[in-house]
């Protein structure tokens, strides 16, 4: 007869010993085994045991007001914390800052993957995640205070490559959560928003001879859970606890249950509420210009969340796949208390597997928040303003995405902005600067990004910066914003300023931007016009954004088609104002010009008001032996044609 593993929460917690290493599941406000947390808090308050525990967790799991892991703040309960996020248990964070407990703040993905290392008996994990950040032992090793001295992160150079080795901490007790359990402890998760790391955590504790305590909503008949629906097999589970009160097993703190978030049903999402045109939407709109068509995207909390709404307004949602580090792939990302989940998701995978995908370069783009930024392009989101927040999944995501966009208001603390008449009006400046000489803690390393030639943008409501070889460069300014009045006085450093362009005016007008045409190159033929009287083919690249080699190839195909329609060699004039070509694509673009010059052009000239754009274009063309006819104004480009075109027309085809 099957062993019945169902016991009460109090009976389960009584099995935990002093000095045990305990791990728990949960992501932000979702999938938290609240009944187990409450029972542990209750036992400690009543008996002062178990005490001196080590808590290991990935994302924050609480409401920041005392629920979730926030229940573990009682002095003596915890001795040490290894976590990616401290912000959702502020009293525990305070204890760490006051040197009352030992603490480490490690990347969320690393902790998630370390569960697997523990399960398989490995000593730890090699990863590049964390290099050149505060997690790197050369810069602190992830320690959060002075009393924490043991190194659990080591630096290694292996065959000329830099690596960090994260030492695994053996786990004695795992708190996991599911929906249903049979008496043998087989666990299913049909009503959960996420599956997270339950299986890996259970294996880690079980294989160390420890306890696996599963909180569930209900007990079902033995053998009634289909084998493929079992997420944690009963052989790993020591005890099953049924949440005695419904509020102890909510989907998240703001939602009792939502079948769409659980993936049990699909619901219509076309009529999502439209965002008001404020600074948050302006930031999200500008960041949306970087969305990769048919790409995979991760969005952070705060301003970046608005990208999902903008993509929906611009009808871009079918052309991008949004993901969360918690394991959701596809659908519409949830926000608020449901952050991490998704409505109508295509799939929900384990958190550690999602980080495998991210770390391996699977993300085409991420948009993340920023609390502080400095002149080297470093970003801080983990410790600032006297607050220990933690990095969460920020380091894994930002270091490994092919394109990074940091998004947030230029200042904060009382900032009031009005978007009117197609311009930005600063009604009241924020009290706190975000752009500092040096960030308090490096959560993202500009130096490491430069070393790997990772494209990085910093988007605010009034301007855009880009990480260049020499540091942060001001590349775009919003209409209505004066650099000397609204930007430089509120920065601790002066960025590189060459010839910043005007941010796209469509961003500041409360109507659809037609962004789908730009991102999918649906309007290439509309960019090309022909003047038969002068035999001039005009190409308007204003707002064109070449992100991939495919963008350049599609432009070449459109130009070839236009030239073939004319039926003879043409003179071409190209407007490069506002065009953006990825650094790695200038050679491909020059190759396109060479091809067209050999087969279809008599001569070609181009113009751009940006000196930097002219310089890059001249460099790329000169490498291929092409005459770099790049002018500042259209008039100059056309005058050049008038002078030389008649001679070049006589040249043999």
Largest sheet: 8 strands, mixed
Terminal Cα separation, in Å? 90 Å
The overall pLDDT, averaged over residues, is 92
- Helix content bin: 25-40%
Question: Rounded to an integer, what's the Rg over CA atoms?
Answer: 28 Å
E-strand count: 41
- Please state the overall shape, judged from the principal axes of the Cα atoms: elongated
In DSSP terms, counting alpha (H) and pi (I) runs of 4 or more, how many helices?
A: 17
**Which structural class fits the helix and strand makeup?**
alpha/beta
Characteristic key phrases:
single chain; 653 residues; alpha/beta; eight-stranded mixed sheet; seven-stranded parallel sheet; 17 helices; 41 strands; 25% strand
Description:
The chain is an alpha/beta fold. 25% of the residues lie in helices and 25% in strands. Strands 15-14-20-25-31-32-33-34 form an 8-stranded mixed sheet. A hairpin with a 2-residue loop joins strand 32 and strand 33 (471-477). The mean pLDDT is 92.
What's a concise summary of this model?
This protein is α/β, with parallel strands linked by helices and 653 residues long. The chain is built from 17 helices and 41 strands. Helix 16 (611-623) links the parallel strand 40 and strand 41.
Structural topology:
Layout: H1 9-13, E1 21-24, H2 34-47, E2 53-57, E3 78-83, H3 90-97, E4 102-105, H4 108-119, E5 124-127, E6 153-158, E7 161-167, E8 173-177, E9 180-181, E10 187-188, H5 198-207, E11 211-216, E12 218-219, E13 239-242, H6 259-262, H7 279-288, E14 295-299, H8 306-313, E15 320-323, E16 328-329, E17 332-333, E18 342-343, E19 347-348, H9 351-359, E20 365-369, E21 372-374, E22 379-380, E23 383-384, E24 387-388, H10 394-400, E25 404-407, E26 411-412, E27 416-420, E28 423-428, E29 432-433, E30 435-436, H11 446-451, E31 456-459, E32 463-468, E33 471-477, H12 483-487, E34 496-502, H13 515-519, E35 528-531, E36 536-540, E37 545-546, H14 549-566, E38 570-575, E39 580-581, H15 586-599, E40 601-607, H16 611-623, E41 630-631, H17 634-649
Parallel strand pairs: 1-2, 1-8, 2-3, 3-4, 8-11, 9-12, 11-13, 14-15, 14-20, 20-25, 21-30, 25-31, 33-34, 36-38, 37-39, 38-40, 40-41
Antiparallel strand pairs: 5-7, 6-7, 9-10, 16-19, 17-18, 21-22, 23-24, 26-29, 27-28, 31-32, 32-33, 35-36
Helix pairs in contact: 4-5, 4-9, 7-8, 14-15, 15-16
